[in-house]
Amino acid sequence: MIVEERTYTFKMGKLPEYLEIYGAEGLPIQREYLPHCVGYYVTEVGPLNQVVHLWAYDSYEQRAECRARMRADPRWPGYLARIHPLLAKQRCKLLHPAPFFDLGALLAGRPPL
Questions:
Q1: Torsions phi, psi of 34, nearest 5?
Q2: Can you give the pLDDT at residue 8?
Q3: Which pLDDT value is given to residue 68?
Q4: What CATH class has 2-107?
Q5: pTM to 2 decimals?
Q6: Is residue 113's pLDDT more than 90?
Q7: Half-sphere exposure of 3 (CA within 13 A, CB side)
């Protein structure tokens, strides 16, 4: 399994607007195409105005397929057009679980360590 970590930094004061748009438009689309949301967080201390979200996939191939289907959804470009003006920066990392961390157990609701 792999985990994609996406960090979005928003322009000052734009985070609440993003969260409203995402909850109404982005999340429903992503729920249709992306398999496992591991977490969705807003920073409280440190770099502010950030959202960090984590998505688990079985493989790089599954990630590519899921994201391609999502991008083909006619609702996706309209959603992106609404949030892009709010963004200041975006970062994406692909992570592999450490050998002793059982991501599958976490996704099944069991302790991962």
A1: -100, 135
A2: 98
A3: 98
A4: alpha beta
A5: 0.88
A6: no
A7: 19
Residue type, 94: L
Kindly report the number of other CB atoms within 10 A of residue 87's CB atom.
15
Sole residue written with tokens 């995402």: 22
Q: What is the pLDDT of residue 106?
A: 84
Name the residue ranges covered by the structural domains of the chain: 2-107
Q: Sorting pLDDT into bands at 50, 70 and 90, what band is 112?
A: confident
In three state form, how does the secondary structure of the chain look? CEEEEEEEEECCCCHHHHHHHHHHHHHHHHHHHCCEEEEEEECCCCCCCEEEEEEEECCHHHHHHHHHHHHHCCHHHHHHHHHHHHEEEEEEEEECCCCCCCHHHHHCCCCCC
For residue 91, give the nearest of 1, 3, 4 by alpha carbon: 4
Across the chain, mean pLDDT equals: 95
- Mean pLDDT on 10-26: 97
Query: What is the identity of the amino acid at 5?
Result: E
For residue 30 the two structure tokens come to 């992503």
Per-residue DSSP letter, 84: G
Asked if residues 7 and 90 have their Cβ atoms less than 8 Å apart, the reply is yes
